[in-house]
Amino acid sequence: MGQALEGVRILDFTHVQSGPTCTQLLAWFGADVIKVEKPGVGDITRTQLRDIPNVDSLYFTMLNHNKRSITLDTKNKAGKAVLEELVRSCDVLVENFAPGVLDRMGFSWARIQELNPRMIVASIKGFGPGPYQDCKVYENVAQCAGGAASTTGFDDGPPLVTGAQIGDSGTGLHLALGIVTALYQRTHSGRGQRVDAAMQDGVLNLCRVKLRDQQRIERGPLKEYPQYPNGKFGDAVPRAGNASGGGQPGWILKCKGWENDPNAYIYFITQAPVWGAICKVIGKEEWITDPDYATPEARLPRLRSIFDTIEKWTETKDKFEAMDILNKFDIPCGPILSMREIANEPSLRVTGTVVEVDHPERGPYLSVGNPIKLSDSPTVVERSPLLGEHTQEVLRDVLGFDQSRIDEIAGSGALGAPVAMAAE
Ligand SMILES: CC(C)(COP(=O)(O)OP(=O)(O)OC[C@H]1O[C@@H](n2cnc3c(N)ncnc32)[C@H](O)[C@@H]1OP(=O)(O)O)[C@@H](O)C(=O)NCCC(=O)NCCS
């Protein structure tokens, strides 16, 4: 069976997390992703947060599956010439350098179009055009500037960042969609184009409901927020604790064992159509007809005490027992799963969402596989490449260089130290 993006060649100039997430997805859909790395160094994440000495970190291996790696000094004349050839031979260039780096390297949009008018150039930057356009940005900066931090956390605490990498991996996802869209448009326009995704914009897109609430707050209190009815609302969307982002009130409730287990909790949603079932399960049948509790509007000012009462029930069950009981009545709820529980969850292994991958230097490790499943384009997760593992192969097979030309380029130092070459 073929793969969706078979025949698409990506010049992967990405590093750290945001860009590599994007190109990893494209590789999982079948694109040939050639990662260009600085000789001797490579993507900085190869050495960051290492758990085994001198072995590519999990940070790197988990973001660079199914890619080929070549080392190329793009500041060396011969290296630049190789890069020009790669631009001519690839369909998409993806990069997430700091603003201005690609231009300084000599690969402006105008130059790339000269070399290959069909090329799509996809970039992630921290900010779009505006006051911060020249800033370098990492995950948490984007979370703060995109509205996530000001709306996350509890009302009486500071802004909080989330563990979900919405700035990096989130923007990588946005960029991947932009790239396949541009590839599709190219099938009838014949031309490449630029695809830009700013991390601030990506985070804000994921915080869409908070901009919704910013406009609602100007017309009255946000009645589903925990601040209602006793707290004060200011002029900006407040932090909503664990309140549900949608129209269905929800909260995180303790389950049996919470005193010793930091994850013995369940997310409980009081969806209106199952209110009667909730009342029966927790032994408060009188709430079904009591006018103070019978309608969603009547419940809004009492949500705090309602959840306190429901919690008295959830505290008597462990989170999985509570799930089993509540799901029988279609009551939307979810256990708070630790990373340990997720790593060991058999159903995630079956679907390939959690995969075990073997690596020649580190041995087997767990990774998150492709979360997007295509019925005609299955993903097989392959280990990340060693630094420069495919340099010779790409110069030979993709660019068609003969050995004497490769030796000449290597002699210039453009491919890295001779030691690295000998190791291939
Ligand atoms: C992530 C970020 C802050 C890292 O900054 P950094 O480590 O200082 O790296 P930069 O992107 O500034 O630049 C890399 C330098 O290496 C050079 N370089 C990269 N690959 C090279 C290669 N193969 N050969 C030679 N030089 C290379 C670049 O030319 C650049 O040099 P210059 O500044 O002299 O022009 C920055 O890249 C950034 O803001 N990116 C956009 C936003 C983003 O994606 N952030 C999230 C990352 S998860």
Automatic annotation (TrEMBL):
| Sequence positions that bind substrate | 246-248
* Reaction equation(s) it catalyzes: formyl-CoA + oxalate = oxalyl-CoA + formate
Lineage runs: Bacteria, Pseudomonadati, Pseudomonadota, Alphaproteobacteria, Hyphomicrobiales
- Family listed: Belongs to the CoA-transferase III family. Frc subfamily.
Q: What does this protein do?
A: Involved in the catabolism of oxalate and in the adapatation to low pH via the induction of the oxalate-dependent acid tolerance response (ATR). Catalyzes the transfer of the CoA moiety from formyl-CoA to oxalate.
Pathway involvement of the protein, from the record: Metabolic intermediate degradation; oxalate degradation; CO(2) and formate from oxalate: step 1/2
List the catalytic residues.
168
Identify one Pfam family in the record. CoA_transf_3
Gene Ontology BP, a term: oxalate catabolic process
- EC assignment: the record states 2.8.3.16
What protein name applies here?
A: Formyl-CoA:oxalate CoA-transferase
Quaternary structure and partners:
Homodimer.
Which Gene3D superfamilies does the UniProt record give? Answer: Crotonobetainyl-coa:carnitine coa-transferase, domain 1, formyl-coa transferase, domain 3
The UniProt annotation places CoA binding at 17-18, 72-75, 96-98, 104, 136-139
The reply to whether Transferase figures as a keyword in the UniProt entry is yes
- Protein keywords: Transferase
The keyword Membrane belongs to this UniProt entry's keyword annotation: no
In alphabetical order, the GO MF annotations are: formyl-CoA transferase activity
- UniProt cross-references to InterPro entries, sorted A to Z: CoA-transferase_III_domain (IPR050483), CoA-Trfase_fam_III (IPR003673), CoA-Trfase_III_dom3_sf (IPR044855), CoA-Trfase_III_dom_1_sf (IPR023606), Formyl_CoA_transfer (IPR017659)
